[in-house]
Automatic annotation (TrEMBL), chain A:
Keywords: Amino-acid transport, Cell membrane, Membrane, Transmembrane, Transmembrane helix, Transport. It comes from Nocardioides endophyticus. Belongs to the binding-protein-dependent transport system permease family. LivHM subfamily. It is found in: Cell membrane. InterPro entries: ABC_transp_permease, BCAA_transport_permease. It is a multi-pass membrane protein. It comes from the Bacteria. This is Branched-chain amino acid ABC transporter permease.
UniProtKB/TrEMBL annotation, chain B:
It is a multi-pass membrane protein. Residues 370-616 form the ABC transporter domain. This is Branched-chain amino acid ABC transporter ATP-binding protein/permease. Its main location: membrane. CDD domains: ABC_Mj1267_LivG_branched (cd03219), TM_PBP1_LivM_like (cd06581). It comes from Nocardioides endophyticus.
Length: 295, 634
């Protein structure tokens, strides 16, 4: 293949990979403090695209107030999700399935809520940073693509820095390592669990908002991204933030090259094959530790 | 929960599930009336009416519901060992497509096609589960979700095989069941057999083991259950049932297309089980009735049926987490427990207290015993265990003591196979043990845990039975067919389990869920479970922690009985009085190294031990005995 084509495939891969990476980051943020993998994670992304389209397209809001309102809503929905759906399930005794029931229920409520609010149709979403494109040799990159990749770098990098260098980050890490011990040392475990849901939801929602010019907005968008975000997280090693970033970009590239070689009809199958392969070769993921079993 | 004191005895109270199964004999109209009434009661606040006119459409709906029930019973088997699938719709679709492609395009016989679809589906289940089971429940859930999405996109993509989005038309019902009325009877037979299979598995030793794997995987392995094999078997069985249901679905609808096998259907099947009550017999069936019918009832009064029913599903689920997180059937247990507690006191008084000595079988005392040689392990840069060598002779108690963080628990974990040693060997009577914990348990090496690991969802009696089950001789099939030999074995196991419970003073709690026991009794139950595995060697990790003085006396008695019956005991304990009273041998470790070894008298006076423990010279019993043993890092 010629160089321009190759570069275009890479740019497309990095762009979708950045969305997967952001979703993987949001999975990990929530998993680290609550110990659950949230089945409704894709719906937080859906909120970003659908509510964004509802404000911008249907009601003609400007981008900036729309994105602020969307993030605010996601923070609220995330925090409420933890408080109303997840915490009661985790507190109801030794039932491994409680949180599955409640996060699946949550995803159905959010998805149907989005559909009832805005309708089932697919809405096109205008570009946020203009229609132009820059040429890199024989290839092109659009401001939308650049903004999505930058978003992953800023949000993922920022969270990684926060986990390593701030008091609240250390508190999150402490909970991730040993929930009970963290609680005994006075870390407000359930408040931080709620905070992590709010952060995770807003990361997914802003990813959805920024990606909307490429993906368009529709209420069932969450499911596929939920799966691919999880695969990216698994690839990188749950719950490592660096792993989520690298895993996302890698998955995007695999998908992009796979589609280029086998055709778009096999897109999902290629991604899925990547997951199975990772599970067979390196089940703990790229950055995952092969954790000693807890007795 | 069900009453467990009736183990193995044929009681009509155990055959109540024949009532729903028998209902199937009433025929399609009656069943349609029953299910619409059940769902109507629930949706009455929304719709204001109960029950509908039973016409052909409702009979068709009822048959569709029966097809989903077959698949839901399979999902229930997956949930038993604590797993989830969000891809059952695709296994269902695999069965449906197999029947459609082979009968329509290739002229196969329906029955052959049905069987082929079910078997193919089971095989694909195994292929997916093998890599996924290396990680936890969520990974399997995501792998099955991925399979579900890929199945749909492949059904669209492989046009030559599947006819793409247009689907395959004209799938016919088999000759003997060629119309809606008679097709009901085929479904009734298959559903009846499926329920019978589910009853058999849930009530069999295998079901108990799967449940144990679900509630405490570590403990399950410690008593010799091969957790992975059980999970794989349940996953394959679920795949088979989903494929079978799909194969029956295709002729009922008459055509198949990719849109019929969505992830939403997978989630629906999963929710039927979780809402009704995972691990129960009736739960999945009841869950299926409600989740299948509720949208149909609600749709009578709404404009946007699809999204409204999703919203209703979601709300039902979120509410169920508050109202009955363990499924609707848990309400029934709650009622049953209230009724039973009123009746039970009279029965209890009859039971004689068994002597612990009579329930512990004697074991061979020839051979060198359990030998640990040159074992070393580095954990996170710390040399947790360094070149430890010790021997537990049969019929002796060997105490392993040392300050917190000395590496005692790590050593125990290496011996029982949870942790791989960097070097060194563990052998019994000169034979090196296999690595897997469950394999070691089957060689007669059993253990208790610092924090007791019980099968919390199961009754105390079942906790013991699960351990006894690993030594059963009768096959699962002989249980399924209720052979007299199998029933006799079940009865005698039940009696043994009961006398073990009696021996540790827990007979009154036989039917009570293990989760409701106070800490001291949890520990005694765990010890009784260890005895039930018929071990030659027992590892005990701080068994006296959290016991009151009467319970410690009981524990001491048990340890001495074990020793008297030829069992070797390796005892990690901080309670010095107990250690010095029961031990034949004591090994003292500090910073992962053996610093002293000898009989209790020698240890008591060894200046190195006194220094390690107290940092000061002391006389008789070291006062560490009084110190509460807190947890040490593994």
């Amino acid at each position: 293949m010629d160089q321009g084509h190759l570069l275009n495939v890479i740019i497309a891969g990095l762009t979708s990979g950045a969305i997967y990476g952001l979703l993987a980051v949001s999975y990990n943020v929530i998993f680290a403090t609550t110990g659950i993998l949230n089945f409704a994670q894709g719906e937080f992304l859906m909120i970003g695209t659908v509510v964004g389209a509802f404000l911008v397209v249907t009601h003609g809001w400007a981008m900036l107030p729309a994105v602020v309102a969307t993030i605010a809503l996601a923070l609220l929905v995330g925090a409420l999700s933890e408080r109303l759906a997840v915490r009661p399930a985790l507190s109801k005794g030794p039932n491994a399935f409680g949180w599955v029931l409640s996060t699946l229920g949550l995803s159905l409520v959010l998805r149907s809520g989005g559909a009832l609010l805005t309708g089932n149709d697919i809405k096109a979403f205008p570009t946020i940073f203009g229609e132009g494109r820059w040429s890199i040799g024989a290839a092109f990159i659009t401001p939308t693509q650049v903004s999505i990749i930058l978003l992953l770098v800023v949000v993922g990098g920022g969270l990684w820095w926060m986990y390593g260098h701030t008091t609240i980050g250390h508190a999150f890490s402490a909970i991730a390592q040993d929930r009970d011990a963290a609680a005994l040392r006075g870390i407000p475990v359930s408040t931080l669990g709620m905070a992590s849901f709010a952060i995770g939801a807003s990361v997914a929602a802003i990813a959805g908002f920024m990606a909307a010019p490429l993906t368009s907005a529709y209420p069932t968008i969450g499911l596929l991204f939920a799966l691919k975000g999880f695969i990216a997280a698994a690839l990188g090693g749950i719950p490592d933030i660096r792993g989520a970033i690298v895993g996302g970009l890698l998955l995007g590239l695999i998908e992009s090259f796979g589609v280029d070689i086998f055709g778009a009809g096999y897109k999902d199958a290629i991604v899925f094959a990547a997951l199975i392969l990772v599970l067979m070769v390196r089940p703990q993921g790229i950055f995952g530790q092969h954790s000693a079993r807890r007795i | 929960m069900e009453s467990y004191t009736t183990y193995g005895r044929s009681r009509w109270s155990k055959a109540w599930w024949l009532i729903p199964a028998g209902l199937l004999l009433l025929g399609p109209e009656a069943i349609a009336r029953v299910v619409t009434t059940i769902a109507g009661i629930v949706t009455f606040p929304i719709t204001g009416e109960i029950g509908v006119e039973v016409n052909r459409y409702e009979i068709f709906n009822t048959e569709l519901l029966m097809v989903y029930m077959i698949a839901a019973v399979g999902v229930n088997l997956i949930a038993l060992p604590g797993l989830l699938s969000i891809g059952q719709a695709a296994f269902f679709g695999l069965g449906a497509y197999t029947v459609a492609i082979t009968t329509v395009d290739h002229g196969w016989n329906f029955w052959l096609a049905l069987a082929a679809g079910a078997v193919l589906s089971a095989l694909v289940s195994v292929v997916l589960a093998v890599p996924a089971l290396r990680l936890g429940m969520f990974t399997l859930a995501m792998v099955t979700l991925g399979y579900g999405i890929v199945f749909q996109s492949m059904a669209l993509q492989l046009i030559d095989l599947t006819h793409g989005g247009q689907g395959i038309q004209g799938v016919a019902m088999p000759d003997a069941f060629a119309d809606l009325e008679s097709y009901y009877w085929l479904l009734a037979i298959v559903l009846g057999l499926t329920v019978a299979l589910s009853v058999t598995v849930l009530r069999s030793p295998m079901g108990r083991q799967l449940k144990a794997v679900g509630s405490a995987p570590v403990a399950a392995e410690s008593i010799g259950i091969h957790a992975k094999r059980g999970k794989l078997a349940s996953f394959a069985a679920a795949g088979f049932l989903a494929g079978l249901a799909g194969g029956l679905y295709a002729p009922l609808i008459g055509f198949v297309s990719p849109e019929s096998f969505t992830v939403d259907l997978s989630i629906l099947l999963l929710l039927m089980v979780l809402l009704g009550g995972a691990g129960t017999i009736v739960g999945p069936l009841l869950g299926a009735v409600l989740l299948f019918r509720i949208p149909i009832e609600v749709n009578r009064v709404t404009d946007d049926p699809g999204n409204t029913s999703l919203l209703v599903y979601g709300i039902v689920l979120l509410l169920s987490v508050y109202l009955f997180p363990r499924g609707i059937m848990s309400l029934w247990w709650w009622v049953a427990a209230r009724i039973r507690s009123r009746r039970a006191s009279a029965v209890r008084a009859e039971r004689a207290r068994a002597d612990i000595a009579q329930v512990v079988p004697a074991v061979e005392t020839t051979g060198e015993g359990l030998r640990v040689s040159g074992v070393a392990k580095t954990l996170g840069g710390v040399k947790a265990v360094q070149e430890v060598t010790l021997t537990v002779a049969p019929g002796t108690v060997h105490a392993l003591i040392g300050p917190n963080g000395a590496g005692k628990t790590t050593l125990l974990n290496i011996i029982s196979g949870y942790v791989d040693a960097d070097k060194g060997t563990v052998e019994i009577n000169g034979k090196v043990l296999p690595q897997a914990t469950s394999a070691r348990a089957r060689r007669g090496l059993s253990r208790t845990f610092q924090v007791p690991q019980l099968f919390d969802d199961q009754s105390c009696l079942e906790n013991i039975l699960v351990a006894l089950d690993t030594r059963r001789r009768r096959s699962v099939l002989s249980y399924a067919l209720r052979f007299p030999t199998a029933l006799r074995e079940e009865r005698s196991q039940g009696d043994t389990a009961m006398s073990l419970l009696t021996a540790v003073g827990l007979s009154e709690h036989a039917d009570v869920a293990a989760s409701s026991l106070p800490p001291g009794e949890r520990r005694l139950l765990e010890v009784a479970r260890v005895v039930a595995t018929r071990p030659s060697f027992v590892l005990m990790d701080e068994p006296a922690a959290g016991l009151n003085s009467a319970e410690i006396e009981e524990l001491k008695e048990i340890i001495l009985v074990l020793r008297g019956r030829g069992i070797g005991v390796l005892l990690v304990e901080h309670h010095m009085e107990l250690v010095l009273e029961v031990s034949d041998d004591v090994t003292v470790v500090e910073f992962g190294k053996v610093i002293s070894h000898g009989d209790p008298e020698h240890i008591r006076n060894d200046p190195k031990v006194i220094a390690a423990y107290l940092g000061e010279p002391a006389g008789a019993v070291p006062s560490v005995a009084a110190r509460p043993s807190d947890q040490e890092p593994a």
